[in-house]
Amino acid sequence: MFINRTVRRCYSSKLWNSATPFQSTTVNFTNLACHSNISTLQSIPKPIYTITRNSASTFLQKVSHRSLSVTPSNQNMPLDHLHIANYQDDNVSQWYPPFSSTERGENPAYTYLKNHADYRNLFFQQEKYSSLMKIDGSLTDEGEKQVNPALRSFIDLCNTQPEEFITDPKYEPIVRELITQSAQLNDEEILLFFFNLRRFSKRPKKNDKNYKAIWQPFDNLCLLRVQQKEWNSNLEYMFSLADLLYRVGLSSESKFHWDLFKRLYRKVDHLSKELLIRMMFCLGTVKTLPDTMSIYNIEYNLPKFIDKLSSAEVAVICMGYLRTKTSVHNKDVLRKILQIAAHDAKNVPSASVHAICKTIIISKSQTSSVEEDIYSFLDAFAPQIARLDMQACSSLMLMGLQTRVKHEGLCNEIMKKLEGKVEWVRSKDLEHICNTLASFGIECGQFFGEVVEDLRRKIGIMSTKEFSSVYGKSFVQILVNLFMRNIYPVDLISFGLSEDFLRSAFGSSMYTYTQEVAYLDICTGIEAVDYNGPRLSEKRVGFLTKKNMLWIAEEEKTTLSDYQKIARSMLEHCVDPLGGPEFCHLCNLVPPFRTIGVVYGLRESDNNPVPFPEKFSKIEEFKIKYVPEPDKEAAVKFHAFILFPGSQLTANTREPMGMAVMHCRQMEKLGFHVYPIYLGHTVRNPTEMKQFVSKVLGRPIPEEPKID
């Protein structure tokens, strides 16, 4: 996506200055294209893995099927240990943690806070209740005497560590009796219930109606006692209860936990640093923030403590932003987050790196003046790649891509980590890594060669349905990333455009196809001249193009985006030097790419403009525009000014991004000589646009008459 549709006014500084300008000459994109020849890699002995529907139960319960590349041929191996087992002989650290995504994101922060002296009293501490329970959760002799008999029976049941769910019918009498007497439980007994609830070997889904019927009465009891103001002076107890709810995965469903968060939120201006961090941890487990609550109220108070925070505390804050999908608007806070994490890069765990990177990505609209801090952050973590898991590595690369901050050293370290081990990278992580390498023009011929060979191997040993269930839409995106580097593996393209794969990955309707499917077909048609495999139907290509292209607005339209207005002004600057409107044409040469250009023709013998062929102007807007044949026999060279937003340049090195490079390369293939214009870089205002067009055309543009 090239165009920001939200901008307004032709002379808006936001669009003209979307990139830092510097003096440059016309870029020859032919030299920027990377033509990588992929030779067959030496075969490395590796275990053979297959995907079946009869995988171990732990696989299906704990791991998203699509997020893994392959499953072990040994079906008795728990999937939690899949990556560990693969690298035991190579002494390579575990790439993907064995727990769920929620635990993966919050576990390091939870461990830090629970064990830190400043936060210990804000979490459940078992030693406070040592008179009632032992370390393993069983009751002491004193506890046997004091605890409610129904609760005592429930704890005795938990001591056996049942292998069934708590919702199993054989446990119904014990559970029903406990619910009946729930109103008689005192505060300590409520804690004992939630503490022992986690001792069942299996846990039902939190929204299971039978499971809700068990825990909700106790949650409602807690909420009632809060509303009756019985716990108003006992905030530590409420935090202990919230901690136990988090341990059994009920934070996002519990009404009591939500009420506790709201109470903290209302007093956010008066919270201490410790309570503010604890509240942000609660926010990360609640995972939502309604419209009636603004993140601004929290963010307004962060500058008071930001200089005193450790990297772990910063990670807790980022987790709150990440889980609620809200962005940081204060650039000083963003800058401090990056600086604190970079300063302690050696000690920041993988999950915290992932949370910080994702928060920066969500807040990317506010990073326009923070690029130097982002580069320093990436620079600090480049030496840490060897110890970080693959999710953190992928997040680092994606953060660089989304903020357009190129760090070649980091990319090289990640490619070094992946050398010979591409098959163990999950499909989405592989997509992000390939996208970053291709977009930044990093030299990665060998790595892309390994990717191609791995995809070929997996296609060979899997059925189409199995392959699409693992890679899904990521496969198409990976192919488009290869196209950016002018790599066109025809066998993979043929598989990607086959009806079986498209139906398995996207469904039977073309309405579910993504923009990348259109790229897959159109780019292949322009550049892969030797390809003769399946293609999309004309109807599908037309539909996807119309759906995703940037339409040229009608001239009489009163409201135009900045981009459309600048494109119109570019056309106006070409009319007079060329001799009239019949000598140039405004169009989208390759419609799926969201750019607009002005095309014109010059006679090669005398370099004079020629009238533009009428039949070219009549080509439907959503179709590709090949170089037109001149009406006369004289040789004509066709040229094009193509307007790119500044977002198609890297923020720190001012180099064209991979999609822009591919776009210019393909227009050259169509027969046009391309002059790319990057807003805020090649030109910064209407005057510079006029000067640039005049210089390229070699004809002065008449000055507008001054009005006295």
Describe the structure.
The structure is a single chain. The protein is mainly α and 708 residues long. It has a domain at 13-33 and 556-697. The protein has helices at 13-16, 29-32, 57-62, 82-86, 101-115, 141-146, 149-159, 172-180, 187-197, 209-227, 235-247, 255-266, 273-286, 295-299, 311-324, 331-343, 350-362, 371-381, 390-403, 408-418, 427-440, 445-461, 464-471, 474-484, 490-496, 499-506, 515-527, 538-548, 562-578, 614-617, 658-669, 686-697, and strands at residues 584-587, 596-603, 609-610, 636-644, 672-678. Strands 1, 2, 3, 4 and 5 form a 5-stranded mixed β-sheet that branches. Strand 2 (596-603) and strand 3 (609-610) form a beta hairpin. Keywords: Kinase, Transferase. InterPro entries: ARM-type_fold. This is FAST kinase domain-containing protein 5. GO terms for molecular function: kinase activity.
